Amino acid sequence: MEILVCIKRVPDTSENEINVNRDGTDIERDDLVYSVNEWDNYAVEEAIQIRDRVCGSVTVVTVGDEETEEVVRREMAMGADKGVLLSDEVFKNSDGRGIAGIIKAEVKKGKYDLILTGAQADDGAGQVGGMLAAMLDWPYASLATLIEVTDDKKIKVGREIEGGNLEMLEIDLPCVLSIQTGINEPRYVGIRGIRKTASAEIPVHGAGDLGLSPESVGKSGSKIKQLDYFVPDAGEGAEILEGSVDEIAEKLVELLKARGGIK
Amino acid sequence: MDTALIPPAGAYVLSIPAVVFSVLILVAGTGIFAYIIEKRIAPLFSAAPDPRLDHFKKRFIFMLKYAVGQYRQPRYLLAGIIHIVIFAGFMILSIHSASLVLTGISEDFAASVSNSIVGHIYGALKDVASTFVLLACVIAIIRRGIFKPKRYSVPPEYGKDHTKEAIFVLMLISTLMVCDMLFEASLTAAGIQKGLDTELLVPGTGTRLAAGILLTMSSVKLQTIHLVSYFIHDLTFFFFLCFLPMGKHFHVITSLPNTFFMKLDKGTVKPVVWGVEEEKLDDLDSFGVKKFSDFTWKHMLDFYTCADCGRCSDQCPANAVGRPLSPRFISIKCRDYIFKNYPLLGNAATNKKNLIGNIFTEDEIWSCTTCGACEAECPLMIEYIDKIVDLRRGMVDDGIVPQSLQKPLRALEKRGNPYGKMEKKRSDWTKEKGFSEKYKVKIIGKKETADALYFADSITSFDDRMQEIARSAVRVLHAAGVDFGILGPAEKDSGNEVRRFGEEMLFQELKDQNTDAILNSGVNKIVTTDPHAFNSLKNDYKDIPQVEHISQVIAREIKSGAIRLNGVEDSSAVYTYHDPCYLGRHNGIYDAPRDVIDAIPGITRVEMDKSSDRSFCCGGGGLMLFYEPIEEKRMGQLRVEMAKEAGATVIVTACPFCMANIEDAIKTSGLEGKMEVIDLVELIDRHIK
């Protein structure tokens, strides 16, 4: 089975302090560290496990600049066979639809049976997977928590739905699935593994390679425009506790007691 | 020489000269033994390298101390004494046993030996020895068979009970003793009957007792007893010899080489592969121990040497709180694995499976806090930490790491600390209100220099509570007149646990970054309040200035008079000192912290039952704080109970991780207000004049 996994490099939310920049166009990126979007990690792990069960290969693909190559290597260290970086000046500031369009062009160059994406990204809108499926006119299931390969034509997909119930679907291949965390336990990628992939060749495909016109992508191709970027004002009834961790905890306990939350 | 009875070498059995049987038994016995040993040693030759031929004199002395001198046996008093008696008896009787074997072949041999003065003295000595050994065996059989001390029991997940084998061997030893006694006694009895000059028997010995009983028997019967007891002894002797390598009694043979080849450098972790330089690690195909043959030959020898005494697991804190780890069964399971896969008959198994998932579980290997209690206890100097670390290296290499540990490891890779805090905030602890106005802590770099470096390490730099320790250290060092500074953002996690959790390459990166920063700072010495950092800097890092734990600095400065202390603040409080594993067991610093506490005038200090090298780990440090173990109780809770039992109201420790674990345990045990924990440097800070 030929599997393509779409991944994204995002600021690591657990290892950063995220602040909005002064002009309100983005977050402060000076001191940030980046990693693979958490959901994508689960998607790659799932793809590797499927490949190990039924043979085939796993390719990871991402849209970004040259620094983004780092996450492709990391996922290759995890066990993906190939990596592709879709990078071009004109891709910058693409909206979700633009990104889906770029990936679609890459998909058309290959012959994939299954495409996995993370259910969403830390800094995204959770739209690329669905749009990609629609553009390809492939079946799509979101928030998959279980995948069983029936044969080379069909797979079964489990989705967690309200109340902890599981829904089982049967889907024809090729198809697109978005992967929910918890579907597996992603393996650890150590420094040694990453270094081993340092010499692996990662092809870079630009708009020309993909047959995309510059106007269809980037800011000019976007149908969505970002207006502002800010921390919302505290609304009525909202209160932000301040102080050291101990002080905050103490205040919280007092508040919960006072409001009857705990006894 | 005229003898009362026909000796074995001169007798006939079924018209065949008995000497034929003696020779047959000797040849077959030694032949089979040699074959078994050859089979047992074979796997060691295909094992990983492990150079242990350095420091010959030191090793020889250790072998005499631990194997021959039985140095650690009395740590468990009753079992230890029984063992020493059996061992000493065995040493004495081994000469006799060997001469008995030859007695069956040459008539003159026995006589020539026993008729000398040395022979007479030795004869008396071995009669005493055999009596003591027999008595010790009887006590041991009663102890193992009836009283069944808990530490010998085998939990169902680890297989069947081992009592049968233990008692079987004790019976073999007893048989040897009884046969020896009857052989000698029958000869003496016959001699007395015939009025010959007989060997003088020591009163109270089994031989003398037996001689007294046998005196009433006919000489024909005595002759039969003499020969039968001889051949039972001979057969049992060789059977026992060949039985030794079949189980835990292999230690009778392997304990000598095992103690000779023991690990000499405590506190360190073995390199990934001996002989492979750190720069060449990237070229290795695989890391750590995944399959059995990845173990070093010495670690395999450890498995053979385990005497199944259970002392390691009895001291293991992970085992005590019900984590799925029992060091004893690391050895036993591996020994069973060798026996099964390298059989005495037939070829070694070619199907080499991964150890994890087959004989070990992932949680079993992650459960170890590397506290070293097992290694401090093992009478045979078996190593566990290096094996655990090697197994973890194998798991890390295969990506098998619990999610709870992946996050801090990633943060360490990206930010140099397990919390993912920004590097520039590493020195924020110096900026606290009320402190920063009085104490200016230098950040050593281009502008500032200092004589000493205070290495805070991650938890002390970032954790709100532990920052207090850092600020106390600053005040104490200031009072002692030490010219010091910190590395600030250039300091990374020391990596003590990163290495011990098997992420060697990440450790190497942290070590390289710290080493550069330390060397660039130009300091002459390093002081730390964190025993984990202390251990790593001292034992894992190379070519950096000398490292001291702050307790050593304080002890010295109290002696020199630079630090003077006020009388104890609260004279009703009872203090106890909890030894951090990486200060005590791994680095042998037991006295300095105690001396420091005792220097406070009027202080009352008690010792917990488990202290010094038997200290009980509070739950582990570094990455262990992130691991979510399967356990019934927390180690810290058990430790706090021990302090309570000792009558203490304040636990003094000298490690930020101990502080975190014990503070937590006081809360979860409902002892808030009754029990307190304080770091040694904070205690001194409070009492400084």
UniProtKB/TrEMBL annotation, chain A:
Residues 24-214 form the Electron transfer flavoprotein alpha/beta-subunit N-terminal domain. PROSITE patterns: ETF_BETA. The keyword Disulfide bond does not apply. GO terms for molecular function: electron transfer activity. The keyword Electron transport applies. Belongs to the ETF beta-subunit/FixA family. This is Electron transfer flavoprotein subunit beta. It comes from Candidatus Desulfaltia bathyphila.
UniProtKB/TrEMBL annotation, chain B:
It comes from the Bacteria. Keywords: 4Fe-4S, Iron, Iron-sulfur, Membrane, Metal-binding, Oxidoreductase, Transmembrane, Transmembrane helix. The keyword Glycoprotein does not apply. This is (Fe-S)-binding protein. GO terms for molecular function: 4 iron, 4 sulfur cluster binding; metal ion binding; oxidoreductase activity. Residues 297-326, 358-387 form the 4Fe-4S ferredoxin-type domain. The chain crosses the membrane at residues 12-37, 76-95, 128-146, 167-188, 200-220, 227-247. GO terms for cellular component: plasma membrane.
